[in-house]
Amino acid sequence: MFWNADGSTSLDYVFVFDNDTAGATIEFVDVGMPNKSFDESSITADVDGQPVSYISSDEYQGDGVGVAVALGSGSIPPGQRGVVHVYVGRVDNMLRPDSDDRDYASAVFSPTWFDSTYSYGPTAMTVTYHFPPGVQSDEPRWHQARTAGQKSL
């Protein structure tokens, strides 16, 4: 995840899929977006380094908002592995005033995920935040996610 100097965000996802030998061919990957303010024309994708040409928010099957990425000739057959890379160049409306310190901006971000209807087994996930140039290492602050029903003081 890249926090841009203008307050927008760019997302860079790399998914490694090991398709089960008894699974169906993986032809589409649904990628959820943090909000509806994403620029669909800024999204690119590839499978094992080969570009895909069909990306559509209209075809998205997940909850909320997102895009469906058609893998086309890069579809992942049963028993095979494929690396799907999706880059989202621009997501707006991610920043808001911080609830604890008005001198800061805050954002809530949860990466896209795949539920147990479509996946099983272990998942290794790494999320890296890249801050705009000039942000010093002691400036970012982490807030614990609030759970349902928990209120800010």
Question: Describe it for me?
Answer:
This protein is an all-beta fold. Helices cover 0% and strands 31% of the residues. It is built from no helices and 10 strands. The protein has strands spanning 2-3, 9-18, 28-32, 43-47, 50-51, 54-56, 66-70, 81-91, 96-97, 105-106. A hairpin with a 2-residue loop joins strand 4 and strand 5. It is elongated and about 55 Å long. 16% of the residues are buried.
Mean pLDDT: 90
CA-based gyration radius: 17 Å
Number of strands: 10
Note the overall shape: elongated
Separate helix tally:
0
Q: Which regions are unreliable across 5 or more consecutive residues at pLDDT < 50? A: none
- The oligomeric state is single chain
What string, H for helix and E for strand, traces the elements in order? EEEEEEEEEE
Proportion of strand residues: 25-35%
Give the proportion of residues in helices.
under 10%
Q: How far is it from the N-terminal to the C-terminal residue, by CA?
A: 29 Å
Structural class comes to mainly beta
The total number of structural domains is 1
Let me know the largest β-sheet: 5 strands, antiparallel
How do the strands line up in the largest sheet?
A: 1-2-8-4-5
Annotation keywords:
five-stranded antiparallel sheet; 153 residues; mainly beta; three-stranded antiparallel sheet
Secondary structure: elements and pairs:
Layout: E1 2-3, E2 9-18, E3 28-32, E4 43-47, E5 50-51, E6 54-56, E7 66-70, E8 81-91, E9 96-97, E10 105-106
Antiparallel strand pairs: 1-2, 2-8, 3-7, 4-5, 4-8, 6-7, 9-10
